[in-house]
Amino acid sequence: MEDVLRPALVFGGTIAVTLLVGWVIDRALHAATERHPENQLPELLRRCQLPLQLLLGSAALQATYDLAELDLKQDRAVQSVLALLTIAAAAWLVIRAAGAVAENTLAAYAARTDDMARVRQFRTQLGMLRRMVTTVLAVVAAAMAILLVFPSLRTVGTSLLASAGVIGIIAGVAAQSMLGNLFAGLQVAFGDSVRIGDTVVVDGEWGVVEEISLAFLTVRIWDDRRLTMPVSYFNSKPYENWSRGGTEITGTVYFHLDYTTPVPEMRSALQEFLLGRKEWDGRSWSLVVTDTTPTTIVVRAAMSTRNADDAWTLRCAVREEMISWLRAHHPYALPRVPTGPAALPPQRRERQEQQEGAAPGESLGRG
Q1: How far apart are alpha carbons 194 and 295 in whole angstroms?
Q2: Of 55, 44, 47, whose CA–CA distance to 21 is shortest?
């Protein structure tokens, strides 16, 4: 009876104590949030309850395992599993805590400034740091698990450290592309060339930077497709960043019209239309003839907007409005295919008129 009761009391008491400790910590964080609502860190740290419970439970069970006096053949295996759980839970807890601190820091920084460009830059850098911390912790936890749980591998580990230089060279050559993307990601994050939330044009696709990882960057295109490409692309090839230096952008619309188009009246119509549109920020606008072709003139309408989304909406609206205005008031200004006879040079026109005037007399003389 004692063989069953003692382990049950030891393990049951250990688990109960760890659950109680976790509950007390959670209540303390909740009380801290209620006392200081402006500080969201305690509430964010409550997300760490699950890894904290797992860490406390596995560590406590490992410490009290000998008190249970099970004397099983698998004691070594059970203790190894508990050690693995402790290491994994510790890494998980640190990752969760780092994420909570990063999120609280970003929220506090965003509340202190109105410069959204700086907020996006800080968010990008924090995201990159979080991924680096997660990667390093995962590698360290795996190494500790191997070396601490499996002592027989320590000799192998010592041999590997002795030849680390040769292995490093071989690994560097083999993983050249991956390492290049890793350093490119760090350069993008801390070089401020592109940030999360920036509007970019890459390979002819217009979209918003949605995620920057250690190796890849994801752009959410305007039709909700995702364009994923290596971060090294943004350090080796040109691309358009419409958010660099500010979100303001000037939209342009081109019209191919007839030579008889009343450009001054069209300019006045555009101005009147822009005054009633909320997308136009009022900074600047223009309507000018930028080019000519053998059959048409090219008229460009330009108008400033606050961001790329407003520019797209206003461009479509201006295009629709100006075409409707021309069709209603000046339909002759719309481009058309010329079907009349071509104008002749003066000498050829006089010669043709003389021939047409002499033709009736010649026919009468023949009669």
Answers
A1: 43
A2: 55
pTM: 0.50
Half-sphere exposure (Cβ direction) of 328: Cα atoms closer than 13 Å = 8
Q: 128-182: per-residue pLDDT in tens?
A: 777 777 878 888 877 777 776 666 655 555 555 555 455 555 555 545 555 566 6
* Alpha-helical regions (H) of the chain: 2-35, 41-45, 49-68, 75-112, 116-149, 154-162, 164-174, 176-191, 233-236, 263-275, 308-329, 346-366
Phi, psi of 252 (to 5 degrees): -130, 145
State the DSSP H helix or E strand holding residue 283, giving kind and residue range, or none if neither.
Answer: strand 280-292
Rounded CA gap, 119 and 6, in Å?
A: 57
State which H helix or E strand residue 284 sits in.
Answer: strand 280-292
Tokens matching residue 297: 């003139």
- Residues in CB range of 263: below 8 A, 6 or more apart: 287, 289, 299
